[in-house]
Amino acid sequence: MRDDVLIGLVMIFVPFSLASIGGGGSIIAGLESELVTGRGWLTSKEFVELFAVSRAAPGPGTMLATLIGWRMAGWTGALVASLAFFLPSSLLCYAVFRFSNAHREKAWHRIMREGLAPIGTGLIIAGVISILRLTSGNIASVAIALAAAVTLIAVPRLPPLLVIALGGCITWMMYGVLS
Q1: Is the pTM of this model over 0.70?
Q2: Higher pLDDT residue, 97 or 65?
Q3: Spatial separation of the C-alpha atoms in residues 28 and 19, rounded to whole Å
Q4: What per-residue confidence (pLDDT) applies to 137?
Q5: How far is CA 105 from CA 54, 100, 171, in A?
Q6: Sequence-separated contacts (24+) of 119-126 with Cβ below 8 Å
Q7: How high is the pLDDT of residue 79?
Q8: What is the rounded radius of gyration, in angstroms, for the C-alpha atoms of the chain?
Q9: DSSP 8-state assignment for residue 179
């Protein structure tokens, strides 16, 4: 059984690694669909909790892959999921960089960069919608997400831990005290 889960982690994370145009946030919707709806490995609540921990923890936001691997198969799963997620895209980025760096003054290079930007943005927006849908998408969740976005845009040098603490306090006040 454990080997099946490890193989499953590789089968899930390698393709997502190679398709993560725009960064790790661009694959959240796909991961949620595959892990919650498709395979049933996680509940919606578990996925949101792992997502929240991955965003609050130091390091790349895609630590979600490591947490999912850990949840499914312990430390071995965390290692397998991390390698399956980070290694293919790292090798691909290195190869593309080596090739395209020699051609960065050419028109096709600029067109490629400009063409990939909206794809990455769209994938990230799909991830945001997916997370809001999992949290029942109520007005409070949307308000908290918008407030965090406006705060980070208005004050980009605001320490992330302060934003996390403020968001936690607001969420606790809305759900802890009012429920």
Answers
A1: no
A2: 65
A3: 11
A4: 59
A5: 38, 9, 48
A6: 119/21, 119/22, 120/21, 120/22, 120/23, 120/26, 121/22, 123/21, 123/22, 123/25, 123/26, 123/27, 123/29, 124/22, 124/23, 124/25, 124/26, 126/26, 126/28, 126/29
A7: 94
A8: 18
A9: -
**How far is Cα 52 from Cα 60, in angstroms, rounded to an integer?**
13
* Domain range summary for the chain, segments of one domain joined by +: 2-137
Contact between residue 60 and residue 24 where contact means Cβ atoms under 8 Å apart: yes
What is the three-state SS of 33-60? HHHHHHCCCCCHHHHHHHHHHHHHCCCC
Identify which has the larger pLDDT, 108 or 5. 5
Average pLDDT of 66-89?
A: 92
Say if CB 9 and CB 3 are below 8 A apart: no
Structure tokens at 159: 């320490």
Q: What percent of the chain has pLDDT over 70?
A: 84
